[in-house]
Specification:
Number of strands: 12
Radius of gyration: 22 Å
Distance between the termini: 74 Å
Protein name: Lipoprotein
Organism: Pseudomonas nicosulfuronedens
Keywords: Signal
Largest sheet: 6 strands, mixed
Helix content: 10-25%
Number of helices: 1
Low-confidence stretches: 1-25
Strand content: 35-45%
Length: about 210
């Protein structure tokens, strides 16, 4: 049997461990991860909304959450902590959306209303999801798959002088689905969890095949 002094020191240690465990359960953020192809950069802007935040113009605020420092030559994973709420001016606002810009590092077209090397993914956050919606798994990350490809201009085409990036949701087999990558999440399932956007690359195709 260990000596009594050891037992006396053991209880404070267990109390600290229990307090740390409770603190972790009370986390108000989650981890966002993104698996990106080589040469891709990522930025994310979050909208926080509150129903009782004064006039309508101030009910929603946008914060620039994250941005990768530059383009990588190889596929890579990035990770960021995302707060689920924010308190400003005495008002609590909950995370409602993150718009994620995928930058494929191509040349910009002068005067183009939309950069040809950029596409978007979106995560929406709800108080409650429909019963049929996919939920957070019991363990591990909730993964949203997507694929990107470059649409190449046809030979002799005058209106499009640069390739254009196209990104859409996909399934685990790599088949294209309708809509941009991302999806909806239930806020109370997220504290301390991981949400991952997994983007793969598909072969280049002619721009005329974009709807196929």
């Amino acid at each position: 049997m260990p000596p009594r002094p050891f037992q006396c020191h053991l209880w404070p240690l267990l109390s600290v461990m229990a307090a740390l465990a409770l603190t972790g359960c009370a986390s108000d953020d989650f981890t966002f991860e993104a698996d990106l192809p080589g040469d891709f950069q990522l930025t994310g802007d979050a909208q926080y909304s509150g129903a009782n935040c004064g006039d309508s113009a101030s009910q929603t605020v946008t914060h620039h959450l994250f941005e990768t420092p530059g383009h990588s030559e190889r596929p890579h994973r990035v990770s960021f902590q995302v707060p689920l709420s924010t308190h400003e001016g005495g008002c609590r606002r909950d995370l409602s959306r993150i718009q994620i810009r995928l930058d494929g590092d191509s040349a910009d077209l002068a005067g183009s209303p939309r950069a040809p090397d950029q596409a978007f993914a979106t995560l929406d956050f709800r108080n409650r999801l429909p019963d049929a919606a996919q939920r957070m798994p019991d363990r591990g990350a909730r993964i949203f798959d997507g694929r990107c490809r470059w649409l190449q201009p046809a030979p002799g085409e005058l209106l499009m002088k640069e390739r254009t990036l196209q990104c859409q949701a996909s399934d685990l087999a790599g088949s294209w689905l309708e809509g941009s990558p991302g999806g909806s999440l239930q806020r109370d399932e997220l504290p301390g969890r991981i949400v991952r956007l997994a983007i793969g690359m598909a072969p280049d195709v002619p721009a005329t095949a974009a709807g196929e």
